[in-house]
Each structure stands twice: as C-alpha cells, then as structure tokens.
C-alpha cells in the first residue's frame, strides 16, 4: 500500500461526541476521535509515554487523557500537553465520505 492511501476506519456514527475508538490496520494501531465540536481526528493509537492504548482514555473537548498516567495530548495537533507525556503523537488526515470515517496513512 502506497503512502497517502485513504482507508475506511469506521462509520461516523460509531463514535459518540467526545469519544475515541481503536482502529487496527495491518501492523498499525490508531485512535479515532470525535471532539466536543463533532470534528473527527486520528492519531497513532498508543501513548508515547508507556504504550498504553488511547482508546481507553478520556476525551475532554479537544484533548485526550491517557488512561494510565493521565498525560494529555491535543487531539487536532497531537501535541503533548501534560506530563508525563513529552513526545507528541503522530496525527493523520481524516475525511468523511458517505457516513464513513477515512484516514490517510
């Protein structure tokens, strides 16, 4: 699969507002988010601190809080916002098509 390929992650309705779900594709794992304003985002799935999956975390507005040590990331940018996380998350472009959430990998 060439870089920049769009893949279907889930149905838009699969994610509640202020929620996150896990999406695995090949050997990669992603977190797919829906923020408080209803926007969709995607990032690498594991916290950069201790590799805990973010799908078990808490979405607050446009921030995801890791379930293990409560580190926080900005969902749209992936920026590390609260210790112990200090390495940003990789984010991926997202688009909606026919009620589906697609991410570009």
From TrEMBL:
The lineage of its organism: Bacteria, Bacillati, Bacillota, Bacilli, Bacillales. SUPFAM superfamilies: ISP domain. This is Rieske 2Fe-2S domain-containing protein. Keywords: 2Fe-2S, Iron, Iron-sulfur, Metal-binding. CDD domains: Rieske_RO_ferredoxin (cd03528). Signal peptide: none annotated. GO terms for molecular function: 2 iron, 2 sulfur cluster binding; metal ion binding; monooxygenase activity; oxidoreductase activity, acting on paired donors, with incorporation or reduction of molecular oxygen. Residues 7-103 form the Rieske domain. The keyword Flavoprotein does not apply. Belongs to the bacterial ring-hydroxylating dioxygenase ferredoxin component family. NCBIfam families: MocE_fam_FeS. InterPro entries: MocE_2FeS, Rieske_2Fe-2S, Rieske_2Fe-2S_sf. Its cofactor is [2Fe-2S] cluster. It comes from the Bacteria.
